[in-house]
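Module 6 notes. Inverse folding takes a fixed backbone as the condition and produces residue identities as the prediction. Think of it as a translation problem where the source language is geometry and the target language is the twenty amino acids. Below is one complete input and output pair. Work through it position by position during the lab.
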């Protein structure tokens, strides 16, 4: 098949492309590299601040290279660094000039915002704690961006018009399933990970090496501030048993180097499931302390492995779970081994690419 992947979040499309190519398919990735993370791509759609005309010209020159594909997959309705009303004609151009179009449910969009703010099918999310909506500043900013705006109109149009909607996390799948007219378009497909050549599954003692990655401007929204605060409190309590490694707003390659050699990572306080960064850490034998709710294992059909130290979305839960790991280092090697096996079973990039091909063939 000839496949075009447009947009990038946390190296998902670049990794998927690698798997699809190894299965014999012709794949082009067009993206901005996920901004400062600068992931690889075939067509560069990056936009420099203050250079709108230059970006428009770059996009116009790229459009002829986006025709004639069997499948075009956009990572999000806002798949370009343009206003929603300017993306609409480009989406229609892609629709006219290619066979099938899939819209990824891979992150922030209208349905994620509105369903979890109003219907609230999840016990907690970026927009609710139980029956109560989240009131922090970033959550409200996203509501203002997506509800009753051109972004909502664009998202609803593409969701109705496209051929299929792959969701990469349980919570995105569960959210879109709340919209009856979209259920038949939905398919849950795990995130793809390339297993590293070197990984470590044995803990030799010494302090627990704990890694915390902080995204620019999203620390409170993702709960990293709470997780880091708990870790810092435990560092004071157990100075000889805990070593903290903190990365903030660094490019992907540097982030990787800083993560390597860690024993555990704190990530995604408000998630049911591990993110791309968490999964990458697990592939290296690093224990994830974050989202590992029962629904995550159920949707994968996993009945044996439980490598993720699941925390509830509050300070005390993070503190307690991390303290238990510090005080019981005999657990560490087993959790590391389970983490690697979990990625092999469910997130190997070739297995995931095969699932995408099956999905594309049924569109």
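Target side of the pair, the amino acids:
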């Amino acid at each position: 098949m000839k496949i075009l992947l447009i947009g990038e979040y946390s190296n998902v499309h670049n990794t998927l492309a690698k798997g699809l190519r190894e299965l014999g398919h012709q794949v082009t990735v067009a993206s901005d590299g996920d901004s400062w993370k600068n992931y690889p791509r075939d067509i560069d759609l990056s936009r420099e601040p203050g250079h709108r005309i230059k970006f428009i010209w770059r996009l116009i020159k790229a459009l002829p290279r986006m025709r004639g594909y069997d499948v075009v997959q956009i990572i999000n309705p806002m798949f370009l660094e343009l206003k929603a009303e300017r993306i609409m004609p480009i989406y229609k151009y892609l629709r006219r000039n290619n066979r099938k179009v899939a819209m990824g449910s891979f992150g922030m969009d209208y349905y994620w915002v509105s369903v979890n703010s109003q219907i609230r099918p999840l016990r907690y999310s970026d927009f609710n704690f139980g029956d109560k909506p989240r009131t922090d500043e970033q959550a409200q900013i996203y509501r203002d961006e997506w509800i009753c705006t051109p972004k909502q109109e664009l998202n609803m149009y593409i969701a109705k018009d496209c051929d299929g909607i792959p969701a990469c996390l349980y919570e995105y799948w569960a959210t879109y399933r709340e919209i009856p007219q979209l259920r038949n378009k939905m398919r849950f497909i795990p995130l793809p990970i390339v297993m590293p050549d070197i990984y470590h599954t044995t803990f030799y003692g010494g302090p627990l090496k704990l890694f915390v990655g902080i995204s620019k401007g999203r620390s409170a929204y993702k709960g990293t501030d709470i997780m880091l605060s708990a870790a810092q409190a435990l560092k004071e309590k157990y100075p000889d048993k805990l070593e903290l490694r903190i990365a903030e707003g660094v490019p992907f390659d540097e982030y990787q180097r800083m993560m390597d050699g860690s024993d555990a990572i704190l990530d995604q306080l408000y998630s049911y499931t591990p993110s791309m960064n968490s999964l990458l850490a697990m592939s290296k034998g690093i224990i994830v302390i974050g989202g590992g709710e029962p629904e995550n294992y159920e949707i994968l059909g996993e009945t044996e492995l439980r490598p993720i130290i699941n925390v509830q979305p509050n300070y005390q839960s993070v503190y307690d779970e991390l303290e238990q790991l510090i005080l019981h280092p005999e657990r560490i090697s087993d959790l590391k081994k389970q983490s690697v096996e979990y990625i092999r079973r469910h997130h190997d990039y070739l297995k995931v690419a095969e699932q995408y091909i099956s999905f594309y063939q049924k569109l």
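Reference fact for the lab report: The domain at 208-346 is CATH 3.40.50.2000 (Rossmann fold).
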